[in-house]
TrEMBL record:
SMART domains: INB, Integrin_b_cyt, Integrin_B_tail. This is Integrin beta. Residues 31-424 form the Integrin beta subunit VWA domain. Pfam families: EGF_integrin, Integrin_b_cyt, Integrin_B_tail, Integrin_beta, PSI_integrin. Residues 1-18 form the signal peptide. SUPFAM superfamilies: EGF/Laminin, Integrin beta tail domain, Integrin domains, Plexin repeat, vWA-like. InterPro entries: EGF_integrin_2, Integrin_beta_N, Integrin_bsu, Integrin_bsu_cyt_dom, Integrin_bsu_tail, Integrin_bsu_tail_dom_sf, Integrin_bsu_VWA, Integrin_dom_sf. GO terms for biological process: cell adhesion mediated by integrin; cell-matrix adhesion; integrin-mediated signaling pathway; leukocyte cell-cell adhesion; neutrophil chemotaxis. Keywords: Cell adhesion, Cell membrane, Disulfide bond, EGF-like domain, Glycoprotein, Integrin, Magnesium, Membrane, Repeat, Signal, Transmembrane, Transmembrane helix.
């Protein structure tokens, strides 16, 4: 045998009841109904004249204890108990048993009318009756890995039927089997392998399939044994199986399975491996999500290869919706498994209305703490167990709504009809003085409901063309809380509340009171002054925020006799220096800029009548109330500053008592740079220009000479290469001309 594997698909409830503190957290309260809606423990006092003159009617809303302490009669308090109506359709002894369908759950209907936020607890009894109908569907894994266990599974199926018949005479059993989707990569799609997905040596092997419904619910033992015994193994490729596909179809195909309406429904699954879940179908290109509907054709899941696997949540939803309890178990003695299952009672609910919470407290030895499900173990046939069921509605509901509570896997259900009570039903005294509301309204829940144009505690304010909001705005300081939350706005005027010490708030907006000033030695204002609008006004001779100090300045006096160097005030015999200066006497200011820098221009002005302040030196430099021109400065590093002539002016400066009060010593002699020789500079400049000019001319002359020489040499070179012709020019005539006389003879 292989070990028992147990898996229970649980559904979460809608919340856990938190411990309530009896506090009334009031919001905007204008009526009794507003009060009831504002908090679970808010109650309303309808007593006439309960509120003080000018006090808002919201003061009628508080916890029971607070209202009683303030003088409200208990009979005039509209409390949670008065607006919660708990009713059941019948008592335990008045429920008649249907002989065909015995009732195991009492009561079967509860009508709750709840205050928002206030929990209500009632008792639910369950008694498992003998012979209650049970439908059990046996779901077998026939993948090849189950080959070694097939004989055991068949035997367990037969033993399971025998155990079922031994426990109830109205038991029925059905049967189905599964492997996996017949597509790659889950199953080998070779035609031969689809027909015989087992090993070659396996003699009995049925074709691959997803889920097959084999036998509908029956009481026929022989038929069940026959169908179980003729089952043979099949196969797939991977380890996870199509378990969730099979459970989903067994849950939603009730007309095929044969689930009865009045039975306890069980699915017992035998498998040796894990299961595929939603999203795994994408490995085979299956993208269509599971739609949680029945697809059965010739007892086969017809859309096994078209739809993805369902998710665990989808399976859990359908199991709960169809009142089916799953058992993932294989064990040697199935009768013990069933008996253990049948002895466990799990009380739960279906979908709750919005903003509703339910918790269960089992009243049984092994029940456990309060939670969103109630569990009792080892409950025998005929034994009664009870559960305290607490229901809380967190908000007001527009109309009545209902939900069901019942044991998991059983048809018996308690119907809870739930509504909320968010309105006050006030019974006023028969005789009320018409003038109670000044004849301008009527009494409703102890307060005046004014006619149009009138407001106020007793309709005493005529608002005319104004509205109530404009009157209330006059009671708000800087658009803040009305009368600072310390008074009531009556006709646009704040009427301030009293304090515990006996005094009252005061001021235009009740902003002042005389009881919260600072204390010293547990005494208001140290017992040495009076509290005025949160500040202490000290008696003569005392000072401090709490008048805790006697006036004295002994510890604040400097050697010069000044108090805090005139750079602070003496408070409680200690200097409180102005910003930057340090105690004990406010002498130094590490963060302040040195006067060597800040007073440099004034030193130039006072000592040498130059610089930017020279025209109004006495006014601009009055912080230096004394200065001396000296031949030498005292030892030490002096200050220096450059004046407008770029001379260095040396001086010392000392701060006197006060924030901007100095005395200075200025050295008569300035340190100025020597003036340059103008004539030498001018003569040198002229000589330099002349020399440079001559050099430039010489350079030009040399350049021209070199260029001419280069041209001459080139000409001579070209002339040597020329050959001249000696022929006479025909137009050339010599300078000498000879003339002959023809008649002349030499004789």
């Amino acid at each position: 045998m292989y070990p028992c594997v147990s898996l229970l698909l649980l559904l979460m409830g809608r919340g856990v009841l938190s411990q309530e503190v009896k506090v009334c957290s009031k919001t905007v309260i204008n009526s009794c109904s507003d009060c009831i809606k504002s908090g679970a423990y808010c109650v309303w006092c309808k007593q006439l004249n309960f509120t003080k003159p000018g006090e808002q009617e919201a003061a009628r809303c508080d916890t029971w204890a607070q209202l009683v302490d303030r003088g409200c009669m208990e009979g005039d308090i509209i409390s949670p108990n008065n607006i919660i109506n708990l009713s059941t359709n019948s008592a335990l002894s008045n429920i008649a048993l249907d002989k065909e369908e015995p009732i195991q759950l009492r009561p079967q209907e509860v009508n709750l009318k709840l205050r928002p936020g206030l929990p209500k607890t009632f008792k639910l009894d369950f008694q498992r009756v003998e012979g209650y109908p049970v439908d059990l569907y046996y779901l077998m894994d026939l993948s090849y890995s189950m080959e070694d266990d097939l004989r055991s599974i068949k035997t367990l199926g037969n033993e399971l039927f025998n155990a079922l018949q031994g426990i109830t005479k109205k038991g029925q059993i059905g049967f189905g089997s599964f492997v996996d989707k017949t597509v790659l990569p889950f199953t080998n799609t070779n035609p031969e392998k689809l027909n015989k997905p087992c090993a070659e040596t396996e003699r009995y092997c049925q074709p691959a399939f997803g889920y097959r419904h084999v036998l509908s619910m029956t009481e026929n033992k022989a038929e069940f044994e026959h169908e179980v015994n003729k089952q043979s193994i099949s196969g797939n490729l991977d380890s996870p199986e199509g378990t969730l596909d099979a459970i989903m179809q067994a849950a939603v195909c009730g007309h095929r399975i044969g689930w009865r309406n009045s039975s306890t429904r069980l699915i017992v699954l035998t498998t040796d491996d894990g299961f595929h879940m939603a999203g795994d179908g994408k490995l085979a290109g299956i993208l269509e999500p599971n739609d949680e509907r029945c697809y059965m054709d010739n007892n086969l899941y017809s859309k096994s290869n078209e739809m993805d696997y369902p998710s665990v949540g989808q399976v859990a939803n359908q199991l709960e919706k169809n009142n089916i309890q799953p058992i993932f178990a294989v064990t040697k003695n199935m009768e013990k498994v069933y008996r253990r299952l049948s002895s466990k009672v799990t009380m739960t609910h279906d979908a709750l209305p919005d903003n509703v919470r339910v918790t269960y407290t089992p009243l049984c030895p092994e029940g456990g703490p309060s939670r969103d499900k109630g569990v009792c173990n080892n409950v025998g046939v005929g034994q009664m167990v009870s559960f305290n069921i607490t229901v809380t509605a967190d908000e007001c509901m527009d109309s009545a709504m209902s939900f069901l509570i019942g044991p998991l896997g059983m048809k018996d259900k308690l119907k809870v009809i739930l509504s909320t009570r968010c309105k006050c039903e006030c019974d006023e005294p028969v005789m009320v003085d018409p003038q109670y509301c000044n004849g301008k309204g009527q009494v409703n829940c102890g307060m005046c409901s004014c006619n149009g144009g009138f407001v106020g505690q007793k309709c005493e304010c005529s608002i005319g063309e104004k509205d109530e909001s404009s009157l209330r705005a006059a009671c708000q300081k800087d658009n803040g809380t009305e009368c600072e939350g310390r008074g009531d706005c009556v006709c646009g005027i704040c009427q301030c509340y009293a304090l515990q010490g006996g005094s009252t708030y005061y001021g235009t907006h009740c902003e002042c009171e005389n009881e919260s000033c600072e204390k010293f030695q547990n005494k208001l204002c140290g017992g040495n002054g009076k509290c005025r609008c949160k500040n202490c006004e000290c008696n003569p001779g005392y000072e401090g925020t709490a008048c805790q100090c006697k006036k004295s300045n002994e510890q604040c006096r400097t050697p010069s006799g000044s108090v805090c160097s005139n750079r602070g005030t003496c408070q409680c015999n200690q200097c409180k220096c102005i910003e930057g200066y340090q105690r004990p006497y406010c002498l130094t200011c590490p963060a302040c800029q040195t006067p060597c820098i800040t007073k440099g221009k004034c030193i130039e002005c006072l000592g040498f009548q130059t610089g930017p302040f020279s025209k109004n030196c006495s006014q601009a430099c009055k912080s230096i109330n004394e200065f001396k021109m000296v031949e030498t400065l005292p030892p030490g590093k002096p200050c220096d500053v450059r004046d407008v002539e770029n001379c260095r002016v040396f001086f010392t400066i000392k701060q006197l008592d006060g924030e901007d009060n100095y005395t200075a010593q200025i050295l008569k002699t300035r340190e100025c740079p020597e003036l340059p020789n103008i004539y030498a500079i001018v003569g040198g400049s002229i000589a330099s220009v002349a020399v440079i000019g001559i050099l430039i001319l010489l350079l030009i002359k040399v350049l021209f000479h070199m260029k001419d020489r280069k041209e001459y040499l080139k000409f001579m070179k070209d002339a040597q290469k020329t050959r001249w012709s000696e022929n006479k020019n025909p137009i050339f005539k010599e300078a000498t001309t000879t003339v002959s006389n023809p008649t002349f003879t030499g004789e």
